[in-house]
Amino acid sequence: MNNAHRGPQKRGFYHGWVIVAGAWIMYMLNQAAFTWGFTVFVKPLSEEFGWSRTSITVAWALSLTWGLLLAPWFGRWFDRYGSRSLVVIGGICGGAGWLLIATAHEYWPFVAYFVFLVGTGINGALGPSTGSAAIAQWFKLRRSLALGVYFTGSGGAGLALIPIMGALTGMYGWRVGAASLGATTLLLTAMVAPFMRHRPTQHEFEREDRSAPEPARTRPFSSLLRWLPLPRHTAPAARDFTLAEALRHTTFWLFTGAIFLRYVGMGITQVHQMPHMLARGVDPVLATAALSLSLIINIPSRVAVGWMGDVYNKNWLLNVLALTGGLALLAFAFVSPALTALVWAYAILWGIALAMLPLQAAWIADTYGRTNYGSINAVSNSFALSGRIAGALGAALAYDAFGTYTAIMLVGAAGFGVGAIMLMFLPSAKAVSTT
């Protein structure tokens, strides 16, 4: 039958949102089983075994390093086979790793399990590159929004899994907490993996547009947007780059370097933000409340920034958020019992600044295309995420040497500022695609 006689095509549920849900669950697991949740085990490990904070941070850094080394290989795997197999590999390795960690009684077995199993599974196969690559395959018109929803998984970890882990560890000991985390990893993997399809068919991809709301319903809101004096979103790349082509671009390294500086500050806070506040005399209840507030603010911030990335210029938004992160760490460096306003300023600004993640992932897809997104994004992330290692270890060494985190917080703030300047020189996706 001729398409002209079919009438308007019906809108319906788009399977891409199932991919977002599955990726969200695995990202929540990634954040709970390593990124933010590891802090739950630091004090119990130190008390039971007498390990220094530096030695525990070294194990954390080695696990992340191992995952980053594997990430480019997993990126190529994704481009060929999709996310389902990576979810299975990551879930089995990560789950087994935490179950075995619960049996460790010496430092080196703990390090081996944490590096080679948790590092391979949680930091490698289930790293944020896998979920963002899966979403990039299914979305074009609302890619930033979908990625914004995906990256709220860290907030989900802070509101659900991490409090449960903390409660179990407090009541029954860190071994029960670790074993429960391993079992949860295996269970969630079995639930999510069957739904993680690689790429949509052409018919499904076209349906993303048809699943959008009717223009008439969004016209008043669109009219409001036209009045906002902000730079508009630019068209995605006109062609798909290979990994080799992307690596030859100065723009790729400019972007990756700016994000590296951002992750230096993030690495400092992920491991040391609570010790810094306590060392500055901030009340533990206030410090915990500030940490929770930043994670809570981060949830709507990532959705809002993701939505804005589909409307406004991503380069401009990335720059603004980099400056926000710098101001957050500048305030955080000088927190004290007499300056509690700085604690709240940090929590609010930091919760907003962390919303850069969906823009970072969407910028790679817009600039270099979907076909080799997995490998290109994984390589960029591997270099950029090493900033977390530099930040975490640098903070530990700075504290051991000077007895304070203040100077290293200022270094992190300066890194955000330099990164913001670098982001100002990013060309548009269209300009990159013509070079």
What's the helix count?
20
Helical proportion? over 70%
CATH topology of the largest domain: Growth Hormone, Chain: A
Main pleated sheet: none
Overall SS class: mainly alpha
Q: Based on the coordinates given, report the CATH architecture of the largest domain.
A: Up-down Bundle
The termini sit apart by 43 Å
Could you say how many structural domains there are in total? 2
Mean pLDDT score:
84
What is the general shape? globular
Task: Provide the β-strand percentage band.
Answer: under 5%
Order of SSEs = HHHHHHHHHHHHHHHHHHHH
Task: Please mark out the parts with pLDDT under 50 across 5 or more consecutive residues, or reply none.
Answer: 1-9, 213-222
Q: Over the alpha carbons, how many angstroms does the gyration radius reach?
A: 22 Å
Q: Let me know the number of strands.
A: 0
CATH superfamily of the largest domain: MFS general substrate transporter like domains
CATH class of the largest domain: Mainly Alpha
